[in-house]
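A reminder before we start the practical. When you read a complex entry, don't treat the lines as separate problems. The point of joint prediction is that each chain is placed relative to the others, so the output describes one connected object in space. Small molecules and nucleic acid strands, if listed, are placed in the same frame. In the example below there are two entries. Take a minute to note the order of the lines before looking further.
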Amino acid sequence: MASILAVDDSASMRKMVTFTLKSAGYDVEEAVDGVDAFMKAQLRTFDCIVTDVNMPNKDGITLIRELRALPDYKYIPMLMLTTESGMEKKQEGKAAGATGWIVKPFDPDQLLKTLKKVLD
Amino acid sequence: MSIDMSQFHQVFFEECFEGLEAMESGLLDLNTGDIDAEVINTIFRGAHSIKGGSGTFGFNEVADFTHIMETLLDQMRDGRRPVTQPAVDVLLSSVDCLRAMLTAIQSDDKVDTATVVIYKTALEIELNGSAKQSIPLESAVEEDDIETSDNEAEATEQGWSIAFSPYLDLLKTGNDPVRLFRELADLGEYTVAVNTRDIPDFDDLDPEECNLSWTLTVLGESTLEDINEIFSWVEGDCELDIQALIKKEAKATPSVKKDKPESSIVPVIDSLESLPASLDVVQRPSNTIPSSNTDVAGEVLVERRSGVSSSIRVDTAKIDALINIVGEVVITQSMLGLVGENFSMDQLAQLKRGLAQLERHTRDMQQSVMNIRMLPINFVFSRFPRLVHDISAKLNKKIDLKLVGESTEVDKAVVELINDPLVHLIRNSLDHGIEMPADRIAAGKPEVGTIELKAYHRGGHIVIEIIDDGRGLDKNKLISKAIEKGLINENSILNDKQAFELIFMPGLSTAESVTDISGRGVGMDVVRKNIQALGGNIEILSELGKGTIISIHLPLTLAIIDGQSVAVGEETYIVPLVSIIESVNITEDIINKVAGKGETFKLRNQYIPIIRMHEIFNVQPKDKLRTNEGVIVVVERQGVLCGLFVDELLGPHQVVVKSLEANYRRIEGVSGATILGDGSVALILDVPGLVRLSSNRLSSTNPSL
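Here is the predicted structure of the whole assembly.
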């Protein structure tokens, strides 16, 4: 099953995402912010990254930009979890190399449905 | 797939309350003059997380409310809105409102909608300059992704024709056309045709680029929004032309962009060989996507009716330490087991060593477990910057609050109980202690007053000090006030310490006018009572014109107390060491009987009432012939001395307090029980309760008085 790195500074969101993905059978690892995620992403190559945008230390967009620059992550789907509405944030994310986004609030079904879009 | 969201609620609430605290302290740090971007960002992030979480977990009213705060903060963060004091105040009160909402939701109470509306309106006025309908939270499908043209076509159309020509870089965003097509296939009957004309010569081919384009048709009742949603992630990375197909003519008029001649479109079957392997899978994938989008959170809200569990966050290092000790205990136990199996006297030394080890581990383990209950005093202190901010604004005083030793740890129970007394004391310092700015300048002090809140460990106690540089206590004023109120005798001569003690007498207030902050003279006595109930004490040091130091000593834990065991007949009782002043051997002749009022004895010019423990607990004295020989333990209860008559003193002990209520029921005069070394149970005396009990007995046995 596909491996996913779930990045969020909020423990409740992280737990919810992880629990949902694990229940669906995915192999999930958690990271608490961009710095943590960037380190973990280099230890093994995940099949997908799901990251919050607004985080301390390193935000989600920077994380995506840095990961996208790595050869291993050139084509890996990276999704942003975002409450930021306007196009601005999304464009910024896309410019950084994000595959797509999931708008908060979402329920577990929406999350799984969205992930199906990017995982074979 | 339905997931029980309530399992995340506890974490969510804890996180929210932490976020609120961070927001609050951030808002208080926000000087309206110079703006620290990082501070605003922290506040913003707090609101942002709460909004995200509450939306996800189905607390929509919280999400709505936070949304407005977030918008306001976002504008401040971007510099689009000045940070003004009114705005900060509105945000601060919104934090309170949010906290109340979350507390209500957490305990399954109804949210006070009326109050919420008030704060919400205040926020909206701040945001828009006028109140308006609350801004709805953006829905999961975002409006701005949807082209609103062609909307009239939706329901009546039978299908869509889509010309999709990705830019070369499409794959580099992690998007893959195959997945998009798979989603399209879920919408209805679908065909795809690939255009390979743009593929360069092999020498020029860059396999990382996308050189293909497609024309797709989807038949069925899908709407333009469905299609747009599928392509929303690649918007800007491709050229997309979506046309409605009219009934019957569907296949005949696939409209494509002008720059693509029709001749270049070949049916997918013909071009399969030329397709990259990854694009082979154009067939419809099985529809495994769950379709139930039921409001999971809504259901959960109803389900969750259980009480609020009280949880505690523990540093993992503490747990590791405990586990380590448990490991040691297990090793020692197995060693002792081995010794015990074939015990002979020559192994005595080994046995003793084992027992000594066991004792040490037990002590360590006790320490570690106690440690788990320890919380930094900051849990209490962190509320005070806000309190000081609000009250000093109300009083027009300028006050700087300094916190020292916030990480000093103390038992969770103490943390919970010390809050109210501290609030009272701080309010007093703010109101009575610190002078108005003008008075301070006149007195040659800096305009801004300072209150220092300090915590540190001393012995087995935590000491909390409240130090202000205000006007100090006026000894003479206190004394004259006390005389006026008839609390002390006119001719009393008091030293500083005794005079300051007067402040703890019920009914005494030196404030010239009663404000809503303090000054009603009920309070300090309650403060002292509460602190004594925790097994602590409070002292005041003050110098007129210079300031006041109030220091509170509290035991680090309520679970273990230092006690003095005393024998009463065959029974053993524990008297908490903190309340014992001294113990005196007595004989018959120093006891005075006062008719109808029990007995007293004279100790250094003071008559002290005697409580006979034998009578209170109905225990036979050891030696019935000499009922008046024994020991009087002099205890203090709120400044009043009282003598407990017991048979003898046994010795000091550290005792673990076991609750009587939990195991039996509440007993007047007894605060708990403990188990002694020999396995017997000893009751721990509750001194104030005992005094009450004894005076009740006296009045009931003497109804005529």
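Discuss with your neighbour: Chain B touches chain A through 49 residues (CB under 8 Å). What might explain this?
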